[in-house]
Design a protein that fits this description.
Elements: H1 15-28, E1 32-37, E2 46-50, E3 60-66, E4 72-78, E5 83-88, E6 97-100, E7 111-112, H2 120-137
Antiparallel strand pairs: 1-2, 2-3, 3-4, 4-5, 5-6, 6-7
Helix pairs in contact: 1-2
């Protein structure tokens, strides 16, 4: 998460939580192809690779960082260069829990997130549920439209 998007400290990544999120995605989603951390010694980010993406995207990934403070980032990127993000962190341009809309996920235009839960596995479940619904409906517009997922 770029420092320019933060209006307060989020602390270091919580590797234990990111491992729990990795396990959840591996067990819950058959389209997860692989997972990896950016560093063995000092992981900052978990990458979850999918065999397919929303719409015409042939593959996609979620880049996930969960911070010890409870801040988080679930950033979707696919082979069609579509981006969107569910974030929770302090900033000056949007609510703490917010959604950066596709296709570009501009920082300045984030809107309130439909995800209100805060427990890490529930947040991961909500993100996966919203991704899966958009995937099955082939519609990016439904990503942030659920009522208090999961």
């Amino acid at each position: 998460m770029p420092a320019t998007e933060l209006a307060g400290a989020v602390g270091p990544p919580d590797v234990t939580i990111m491992r729990r999120i990795r396990t959840f995605f591996l067990e819950a989603e058959p389209l997860v192809d692989a997972t990896s951390f950016d560093s063995v010694l000092h992981p900052q980010e978990l990458t979850i690779q999918f065999e397919d993406g929303i719409g015409t995207a042939e593959q996609c990934r979620l880049d996930v960082t969960w911070f010890r403070s409870g801040a988080y980032r679930f950033h979707y990127v696919d082979t069609e260069e579509v981006n969107w993000r569910f974030d929770r962190h302090p900033n000056t341009h949007s609510p703490a829990k917010h959604f950066h809309e596709p296709p570009v996920a501009h920082s300045e235009t984030a809107v309130a997130s439909c995800i209100t839960v805060e427990e890490p596995t529930l947040v991961a479940r909500a993100v996966l549920k919203l991704w899966r619904r958009a995937y099955e409906m082939d519609d990016l517009e439904v990503l942030n439209t659920a009522s208090d997922p999961p």
